[in-house]
Specification:
Length: 396
Amino acid sequence: MKSFSHLNSAAAILASYSGNEPFHLFLKKYFSANKKFGSKDRKQITSLCYNYFRLGHAAKNISVEEKILLGFFLCETQPSEFFKSLKPEWNDLIGEPLEEKLSIVNHQFSIKDIFPFKDELSEGINEQKFSLSFLVQPDLFLRIRPGNHKKVTGKLAGAGITYNFISENCISLPNSSKIDTVIELDKEAVVQDYNSQRVGEFIKLSIVNCQLPIHVWDCCAASGGKSIMAYDINPKIELTVSDKRGSILDNLHTRFEKAGIKKYHSFVADLSTNNCQLPTNKFDLIICDAPCTGSGTWARTPEQLFYFSKNPADKKEAIDKYSVLQKQIVQNVIPYLKTGGHLLYVTCSVFKKENEEIVKFIQENLQLQLIKKELLKGYEMKSDTMFAALFTAPAT
């Protein structure tokens, strides 16, 4: 029977996956090597695996197959022939509210076990709501670029894609929406999480009173989302981008070309070391979107939640590794801040050692003044959770 085949295939895939690479890449290789699976088979098996990971560290005392079915029951909302053949009693109830479904399975599942790192959380996070957010796939968010509102919304409507405005420039769509053939990504709109877009409020605050030329350095640029947002806020900025990986900057050049950003400087630098190449000038704004655990995005990549630190000692070591790295980076970039300039420190982490404790370190050791900090909670918006803190360099 196909339902049992899908269940067994999902269990086999999970048994062979070690967590050493993103699960979507692992699946791509697996299905490429196993041609017997059709598109519907791949979709069903993929869903089973991801729903298994969404349970995080909960339900450890049941079999893999039972946990797969439990994850399917809690995360899906539509009855199916697959589930009807394996769990008919649950299939009849799968459309019930999540709270009702949780009460049905509370003998084998506890919400608090999904994310067992509560003692490490930043202040202000609702532990239960945050844990429950892992059971729901986050939305896809677009930031409409200046002058493209009518064009983007018209194209989405023409393609029959439903969307909701979250703010003036931010729209949310179902995560499965196929938009890359509908709109010109990076030219007309940027795929960017809601709370990542909210970091733009900090960027605006930092450059609103600056006189031209405004020098901005995105020091851990990665895919360049913050750089494009800064450019859209003020296209007259003098932009510099850096990353420790040349391949990332190659991709960034391509993205900037699509975005119409032609004038900028770029260089490769590992800012965690003291002998890296650094710029020769100083900046009005340094954006430090620091490397981190990514724990605020784990609802998008639940395999990272599942494989994060199986024991307390490993957990502390993993978080401390990033905390040390973040301190090294901010220490190395702050000397390139103008007097009166701003440092914008950003993470997509929910851990206080990567957030509030870095703020305290900067205040106490690097003589910057905190202007504003905020934990941007995503669990009520089906988005990522992020942290942002804006500092200024006072006159000495």
